[in-house]
Structures are given as C-alpha cells and as structure tokens.
Design a protein that fits this description.
The structure is a homotrimer.
Chain A: H1 22-33, E1 40-42, H2 50-53, H3 62-66, H4 71-79, H5 101-110, H6 119-131, H7 143-155, H8 161-167, E2 170-174, E3 177-178, H9 184-191, E4 197-198, E5 201-202, H10 204-207, H11 214-225, H12 232-248, E6 253-258, H13 268-279, H14 287-306, E7 309-314, E8 316-317, H15 322-328, E9 336-337, H16 347-353, E10 361-365, H17 369-379, E11 385-387, H18 397-411, H19 429-449, H20 455-473
Parallel strand pairs in A: 1-2, 2-4, 3-5, 6-7, 7-10, 10-11
Antiparallel strand pairs in A: 8-9
Chain lengths: 477, 477, 477
C-alpha cells in the first residue's frame, strides 16, 4: 500500500492519489498544501460517543482496534473462507470468550495482501504508519512483532481516544444515535464543556415498522420521551420531543435509511390505522413500506420546523446473508446494494418541501448510475437538495473520481455537502479525510490543467470541499 | 473558467479540454488544428427561426441574451435559493413587467462561481470572451461595467443574429417546429433564398394524447393541414401531409420525445378506438401510453416512405416540480432523467423496420448506463440505428468522454451521428461545437498514443465526427 | 490499428494499451515484461474441439478464418447495411453454396475502417501482423494481395490449429459442450494423451424448457446418459451422470446462461409437475422461468457434490432480430444486453450455498452498472462467489479499465477469476490475452504511480491476474 522509501522503510508515498504526470502532480501538491492541515469536520459517522465521554476510555488490543469491530476489514477475510469466529467477531450472544487476539492478528497479517488496491488497505496503511509509526509492511512473518509494537503504543496516554481526537485536529464530530437513546454520553460531554461532539437523530428503529424489536423500541421511545405512545399522533409528538432534545444536546441533523426512497403522504387517518395495526402486531402487507414512505415526508416536515438537516441514505439490502445474520446480527459485511430510483420516488416529498428554503435534504446512494442521471439533476434544481459525498463502498479513490466527474458538471460543486467519513473506526478518520483532500486536489488540478477552471477557482473549491461545504450543509457554522 | 493569460486578462486557455501530459496535448493540438475551423453543421437544436428570418432581429439586453431564456443557466441559481422572479423568468402569464435587467445581471454575476467546472460555465466563458471580447472574469464588482460593454456590443450590427450566423461559419442549422407550425419564418427565409436554415418535424403535441391542450393542437393541425381530423385515419393523413410540407420547406428529419421508448403496433381498429376516445376527452388509463408506443412505430413507417430521418429522445421526466410548472410552465430546469430500457422497448419497432435500409433512427438518452449495455449493441447491429451524441446534461467534457469510451468500442464511431448542439442559446453554438471538437481530438490523440489507432485514422475520424457524420446521418449531403 | 514503424510497415505499437505519460509507460512495460510470455490459461471459450482433435484440421480460406464464423466481425458490417449473404454467413439451411471468398474478403477490407478503435479491430491487427506477418494495413486496394499472402500461409503446416496451439503457448484450453454431447473429440484427444484441452458442461439446452428443440435435446440426453428421462428425478440423475462423465473427460467446470439470474428452490413435487408438463409439451406461463430459477440452484448443489466450478452468464437478450434469427439462427450478432439484478435474484441460491466452501460460483454480466453496485459487494462477502472478467462487448481496453476500477476496490483482486478469452476465434486467443496483460499491467503501474500499492505488490498482482487466479478459480492447478 505504499512506495518504499529509500531507507527501505514502509511509508505512504507523499504523492499518493496524485497522477503520475509531473505537471499534474506538482499542481495537485500545490492545491493540497492549502487544505492538508485544515481542521476535520466530521458531520456524519458511527463513532461511539462513549470513546470520548469517558476520559479513561482505551482502544483495547490491536485486534480490538483494527479487526474485530470493523466489517470493512473482516468481510474480505470472510470472502476468502475465513470464519468470523476465528476473527473474534462477536455473535448475537456476545463477544467470543477467550479469543486469542494474537492469533486473530496473525490471520489478518497473513491475508493482508487481500487489501491491495482497496480503500481499506490504504486507510490501514495510513493508520499503521502515520498514527502508530509501524515501518514494515504487515505480513505473516512480522505480525507478532508489529502486534507488540502496537500494544506498547496503545498503552501510552498519547493513544487514548481523547488524545487522538486532539492530535487529529477534529473541529467537530457527529455521532449517530437512536431516537430512543438517552444521550447519556453526550450529556456528560456537554457537562464537561465539550460541545464539538454532537449527536445525530436516527429514528429508523421506530419508523420502520418491521424493524427487529419494533415494539420494544417504541416502549423505549415512550419511556425516554415521557409520552405514552398509543396512537400515531402521540408517536409523532414523541419524535418531535426527541428531536428537540437532540437539538438541545447539540444535534444539527437527522439521518435515516431506506432500501428504496419511495415517498408518499398518507392521510392522517390512514397513518393512524397502520400505526395501530403495528402496535397490535397485525401489520398488513404494504403497511410498513407505506408508513416509511409517509414518515420520510414527515421527517422533512419536522425539519422545516425545527431546522435539523435531513440525511437520507438509500439502497442497501441489509443482512443479505440470512444464516450469518441469525448468528451474528447486523453490520457483518453482508449488506449488498440494489438499484435505486430517486426521480419518481422523491416526487411527493420534493413537491411538498423541495422548494422550501428551511429544508436541507442531503441524499446518499450506492447506485452510482444515479449520480449523473437523477441525483445531480435533482440537486441542480431543487433548492432543498444537496448531494452527500460518495458513500460506503464508493468512499474510495476511484469512487470519488467517479462521483466528482459524474456529479459536479450537472449539480455544481456548490450543491454538494463536502465530505464525511461515515466511519465506526475512529482511528481511520484522518486517513479518510486525507484521501478526499488528495483526490479532490488532484481532480481540481486536472480541471486547471484542462483549462476548465483557473487556479484561483481551484483553491477556493479545495477549501470549500475539504471544509466549508460540510459546515454550511450541516449548519455547523 | 480559464487560465489567466500573462497580461492578467480573462481568456480561455488554448489548451482547454486537452490532457496535461505534453505528448498527448501536442497531438491533440495537431488533430484539433485540422477540425477547428470546419463549418458548423447543426442538425438538431431549438433556436427560434424568427431570429434569422427577420433581418432586423436583435438579442435584447445582456440578461435577455444570457439568462432569462436559458434554463441551463437559471436552474443553478434557482437551486441555490434564488427566485425565478428575481431573474426575470416569464411566468405562464407572460414576461415580468418592468424587470430590472441590470439587477438580474448583478445576481447572475455574484453567483457566477456556481458554474465553476460546469459545461454552462465553459460556454459562457467562451461566449463572453470570444464572441463579446469581455476580458475580466465576471463577478459582483465588475458586473455593471461588463453589462455596459455587452450592451454596447449588442447594439452593433455585427452582433445581429444574421451577422453572427455568418461569423460562426454555420453551414446548416435545423430548428425544431411543432407539427402544426405554419413555418412562416422558414417560408420567408426560403423566399429570401436562404436554404441552410431548415425545420424539423416535431409531432409530440399531437401524438401524445395527454399533452397539454391536445384538442387545440389537433384543431390547429387540422387547420394547417386542411384535413378534418375526425378519425385515426385522417390524423395519419394529416401528419403525412405535414411531413411532406416540412420536407418541402427543407426538413430532412423529425424528432420526438418519450419518457419511455416503448413501442407496440396496435391493430388499426384499436388505434382508431383510442383516438376517438381522445377526441371525446374520454381516455382510458393506458390509452395515451399505448397510442404513443404505436405512433413511434408509425413515425418509423412514415420515415421509410418519405425519407425523413427519425430522432427519438427518451428518458426525461418533464416538469418534475409541479408548483413551478403551474406558475412558469415547461422548460424551467425541472426536467429530471429516469432509468430507461431500450432493448425490450424497441423490440417491436426494430423487428418491423430495424433492417430497412430506408430508415435512419437516431437514438438519444439520458441514462448513461445504457450506452454500453443497450445503445451501442443496438447501433452495432441494426442497419437502421445510429446513436446521437451525448444529450443535455451529458453535453459536457466528462459526458463526452464517457460517451466516447462506452459507445465506440462496441458500436464503432461509424454508427454515431457526429455532434449536435441541441441549444436554444444561439450564441452558444460555436462554444458547444468547439468543446466537442476539442474533446474528440484529445480522445483520438489518446487512442493514437495508446497505439490503438494510427494518426491517419485519427485525422479521418476527427473530420468524420466533427463534420461528415452529422451530414451523412441527417441526409444533409 | 497501430502506429506505423519507421520503415512504414504496418505493425502494432509496442506501447499499445499503455498511457502516453513516459513515467507510467515505462513502469507498465516493466510490469508487462514479467507476464508477457506466461503460458495462456484459457478456462472458458467456444473453440471447437474438432480443430484440435483432428491432427489434419485446417482453418480454410482467409474468409473462413476471419469473417464467416465470427459474429464479432460481421455484425459491424451488417450494421452498415451489408447483407450477411454477401459475407458468406451460413443460413439455417447450411453454408452459402459457391460463396466467393475473395469477394467476401474484398468487402471486409473496404470496410475495415469500421473497426477503428474497436477491440475486434485491435485483435484483427494483432492476428494479421503477429500471427500471419501481414505488413500493410488492410484496405480495398491491397485486399487481394493480402488474401494471397494469407492463403499461402494457411497452407503451411506451421499454421495448422495444432501448430498454433503450441506456438501460442497455451497451457490449457477449455471448450464449451452441450450436456448431451458425446465428447467424441475430447475422447480422442485424451486417447492421444492430450489432456490440456478440456470440456465444460453446458446444460442450457435441457434446463431451459423453452429452448429450441427441447424435446429432442432431452431425447439425446437420455440416449447418451443411458437413462430413460420420464420424470424430474431421472432428469436430475441423467444430468449428474453427464457431469461425472464430463469430469472424467477432464472438465473442471460447468457453464450456463440466463437472461435474468433469478433463483428459487422449488419443492420436489412442484419441479416434477413442471417437468412433466414440459415432457407433454404443455408448459404454463411461468413454468420455464421458475424451473430455470430452480435449476440454477440445483446446479450449485451438484457443484458442491462433484466439485465442478459453476459459471453463470446473465443478461443477454438472445436473437433480438427475429427475422434474422428465422433465417440464420443463433449467434448472428443480434444478442443485445438488458439490465440485470443480482442482489435479490441470487438471494435464494446464496443463502443455500453462498457460504459453502465446496462451491465456486463465477459470475459474468453485461450490465456494467452492477459491477460496483452488486457484483463486487457480493464477491467481497460470499466465500463462494468470484467475479469473472469483463464479458463479450466489455472484453475491450475501456471495458477492462472500467471493470478494474469498479470491481477491485470493493471485491479485492483476489475475488476475481483472472482472465478468460471466451472466443470462438481460435487465432484471436493470444491477442485477447495480450490485451488483458497489457491493460492490467498499465493499470497496476497506475496504482504504483498513485502510491496506492508498491511495485512488489504490483508484480505479484500481475502474475495473479494474468495466470494464477484463473488456474485457482477453475481448479486447474
């Protein structure tokens, strides 16, 4: 994942992500130099707030840090026939008892070649070398020595989450939190005066009537909101109350996922009837889909009222591997994208709120064929719509290039929301933002070299996409 | 939108659209030099013939020329929250009374940064610098001075439409005209002996039974054709008569649009029944869609008889923003593409006429995922099928590269129809053709440099795609 | 299709498929030098085994070799209005009597410009220059002289199929053979001790209940298997017996095609009922589709038992041109791709066998929008799934680049199956593998230059993708 330096040590190439053409590379460096050290704005991700609310939190072993919780990493090992059990991945019953973390690390190291040319490989190389000072490329032979090294580092106070938060120069980090979350960690962060770790309101577990444990989720929502939820109306009130609470705790946005971004406003009484059937456990066939379609619009409506920015992620078929899901639960690398249609599906929402200056709706998709066909034209017309950065599998060097090439000519860079890392791997945050800053710098250098923009424009666009657009989109200014 | 020259003046880079690699750039220049000054063949577009039939026609103010009629321009301003009213865009009731064109220009100038890296930005820069000699990049500070300059220029006879037509070296320009149009402007052009402005037969308003004002459109068609249209048979006869009239007025092609290119031949009596229901205002649910599916085949049939080239544009969901449509009408930047299927949908048409040497059917789409999957294989097999150039949003530097890379390996360049500008902005015509000539020259240079073709081939292909293929495809030779 | 050498002779550029940037080109050469001469592993294709089983087999005339049997070639001529009859393409009734092969060659030569920039053009140039020593670019003027030259060459023993097999350095070649094939040629090859020409089991003609002549195919299957096929159970037994026989004759894999890769397990009695209806010629509407959906799973089940690797090719609408099909039959250049959905469609198969370490399922598609969206995520998760190389139209320079860029970041190179040429044109085999080796070498050079992998990784990946991955995937080690 790197060019060896002259000393033979493992190190990332200072030219990484830049074209080999010397004219282009030089200009990419010039642009990159102006954004490389900007503070990190991380408006959407899945880092646990507990890592930061507890001053004594630590990352655990190297396997705890790099492998066990990260489905980006272990899915590739799994795809080559390595069992999740051998990688210490917890089942639904809980963590693997007595897992041998050195053995897990050994398997990982022996299969590190699988990550050649992948974004995960690039991030891991950056983390190991830049954050932890590893100077040999990981392999089966040096696995244990590198494990020793990492273990020593992780024991140092400079490698605590809070210390790294500072070292990483993170200006603001937003977590993702269930609607029924008490936000205890966020409360204690704020009690300490730490206001740059913010929650995000995620209602999926209660608005998707087919979510696992939906009834329990509703009970929990009732409990934390103080509303008895026995009707659609009280459900809506409870959601509004929670949004207000999240906002008080620093949230500036919401987030929700849909397989399919279909939207349709239901008449009040229809919504009520479906909700009551859900409470009684007697859903009819289309109930959940239609309720979701309605609730996406309702979330937009609430956003126009309370000013929370709305994020919508569509197109992931979750838990495709049923056997694995039964044993291990969600987020095990078995979420597979599907085709998505936006133009027809968002019609109802956009006709109700797309022209409303109070709404910011940020769209994320995994179906890249919609970039130029649907997403860019929608963002290039509706005042409310912005496009989120390349998501998940497409948060990669090529994925970014495809996004930039397919989106910006039609939507304009100024209808995008900059970058977000969307990570659950805290230590990968700087690596991910760095790839974005490098790829966009190189892309802007290309536009300058092709005579399509001038350098002054490029330098502003670099600042915008690395820093300002995310702050503006997420109302973090 | 340019590299500044050494004197600090705003000017387009002479290297624009070419790769930065010096070997590649040099060869691209060499190829481009052979096509740069070829006459412009513009076989499809939306310029008003009135601009050219009236020798005294003028463009109006700078806002009239660049902003008010061009949805490519104002949609981006709208997407950032600027009202169409503040841009002088006419509503259905008519032009904005007393619109302050200097104020409109000021808003445009202050937001000119939105166009960075967009094709519209590139064309505007070319028009302002090359056509009008503006030498400072437009911004809020210099907006009024540039307005003054443009106003002075536009008052000169050298900036009349006819003078620019000559200056632009346009060999032939085809307009787009409703089936019921009297072609009064085309008649007077021909009366003057001007035969290189030609009409194109566009029957959408009468073959789409759900078109706004369909009954009135039919009445108008009856009037101009001299047929009483009281049956499907007389409707067909009227269309045929109009096609003959258009042909007499110089037309060599027809054009029609469909959300979905589904084709199906209806039995005569079925077509008759649907048409009668339409006349009576009593359409059944699928009537309009099935009639359209049938009429696409009928248009192909007529083309085999009268030799008019058939164009089919598919995949735009028109007037997606219903509120805006109600107030402002069509073509307001709110047309959003959708997924399109060609293979199944064109089956019936192609099985009837795809092997017919008399038919030329030029296909245009907005769903780029169909380039390599459906369109190139269809064009690479059926004698009747050609592919039109990248359409609308994809008439851009990257859009052209994607098209060339995804289409030509399978279809061969020789199953494409060269370039057309499809513009309603007359002054943008040279800029648009220039981008095509530059991008294709650079692309051909790439093929030579990669050893995939030799220079002799490249030079011929450049002539072909810049000039000859359009003439051949549209039977303008 | 080449840069002329300084002597003015037609020759392929030694830099073909490499970027013009000198740094990149140099590194591409360095990588390519390590794989250029590796033996060819050709695990999937359509070469007739008769070419190799008969020591005296010859290729016939230049038209027999290059034009008449190759729909890649004549479809482009057809698309420009040249009749298949004038190209000597046999109809269903048999070969064209008294076809003038010199005239066919003349037409081909005069239209050779159509292949500019196409993969077929690149292969033809490689075959003509590298294999047959033609040193002038083919055109109408030199057509007959080149025909003479080729005729002389083809008469030499060095140009027999067996001699070229050796010269081409083919380590192993797999053919594709109907389930009911007696494998007579393979038997005689093995009798001679030739074990590197292997059959592949292709059951399409018997598992697709709507296949042309299905009943006859079943009779033939019964005959060769020795089973009376009067029930679903005997049908399955016959298939299993044939698979065992193919395996004995050297097969390591199966292959099947589906318009749509939908999979669904039918209960035994349901499958039985459908099969009986098929035997009686009384299929109901969905019978064939559901039986196919079931049989795809059954083929996977059999693979887990007998270890044959399973290939699935989806997404080609066969014989789109009904008139041509009626006269000429299958494989006439009229197969047009359609959209394909993999995520939902393979759900049932993958949930039954996707985690089974005994299964290798290699997927091939023509809908490139599924590369990054569905295929790479599936291969990057399920242990059983590998991705086949770019198929058919996409077996081209740009098609390979798109594949590599869109697949490998998510799936990892190590979940792909290397290259296969899939050709029926034996003489094109080295040209096709060479394009792959060049394009991947250049792509790997790009990753190194962009600092995403180091040279050591690149060199290993080059060996892997040119040679080792195909052997591993197809169990040819």
């Amino acid at each position: 994942m790197s060019a060896k330096t002259q000393t033979g040590k493992w190190a990332l190439s200072p030219d990484r992500c830049f074209d080999a053409n010397p004219v282009q590379r030089k200009l990419a460096h010039r642009i990159y130099a102006t954004v490389q050290d900007l503070p990190i704005v991380s408006p959407h991700g899945h880092v646990s707030p507990a890592l930061l609310s507890d001053p004594n939190a630590r990352f655990g072993s190297p396997a705890d840090l790099f492998i066990i919780p990260d489905h980006y990493v272990y899915r590739l090992l799994y795809s080559r026939g390595i069992n999740l059990a051998d990688l210490g991945v917890p089942t639904r019953k809980g963590p693997v008892e007595g897992a041998d973390h050195r053995k897990i690390w050994q398997v990982f190291a022996e299969n590190f070649y699988l990550f050649r040319g992948t974004p995960t490989g690039l991030w891991l190389a950056d983390e190991l070398t830049s954050v932890f000072g590893v100077d040999e490329k990981l392999n089966g032979a040096n696995a244990q020595a590198i494990y020793d090294h990492l273990e020593r580092q992780l024991a140092q106070p400079e490698f605590s989450p809070r210390a790294l938060f500072k070292r990483f120069n993170i200006e603001v980090l937003c977590t993702t939190d269930a609607a029924s979350d008490t936000l205890a960690e966020h409360k204690s962060l704020r009690a300490e005066g730490i206001t740059n770790v913010r929650p995000t309101f995620r209602p999926d577990a209660v608005i998707n009537l087919e979510a696992e444990n939906w009834s329990k989720n509703i009970e929990k929502l009732a409990e934390v909101s103080g509303y008895e939820i026995d009707s659609y109306a009280t459900f809506i009130r409870a959601l509004q109350e929670r949004r207000a609470f999240f906002k008080m705790m620093g949230a500036t946005s919401t987030d929700q996922a849909a397989l399919d971004p279909y939207t349709e406003r239901l008449p009040e009484d229809k919504a009520e009837k479906i909700f009551i059937r859900a409470l009684r456990g007697k859903l009819k066939e289309d109930d959940a889909a239609r309720f979701m379609a309605h609730m996406i619009i309702e979330m937009a409506r609430m956003s126009t009222e309370d000013g929370l920015v709305m994020q919508l992620h569509a197109g992931s078929f979750r838990n495709h591997n049923a056997g694995l899901f039964a044993e291990y639960g969600t987020d095990k690398g078995a979420d597979i994208p599907v085709q998505v249609e936006w133009t027809h599906n968002l019609y109802n929402l956009l006709n109700e709120f797309g022209n409303d200056p109070r709404l910011t709706l940020i769209l994320f998709g995994l179906d890249e064929s919609t970039y130029s066909r649907e997403l860019a034209p929608l963002a290039g017309h509706y005042p409310a719509v912005l496009l989120g950065p390349p998501w998940w599998f497409h948060d990669s060097v090529n994925g970014m290039v495809r996004y930039l090439d397919q989106v910006t000519e039609t939507a304009s860079l100024y209808n995008t929301s900059g970058f977000n890392d969307d990570t659950r791997a805290f230590v990968s945050i700087p690596a991910r933002h760095d790839v974005w800053r490098r790829v966009t710098s190189n892309w802007l250098a290309g536009l300058v070299n092709k005579g399509l923009i001038d350098l002054a424009d490029a330098l502003e666009m670099a600042q915008d996409t690395s820093y300002r657009l995310a702050k503006r989109a997420y109302r973090l200014e």
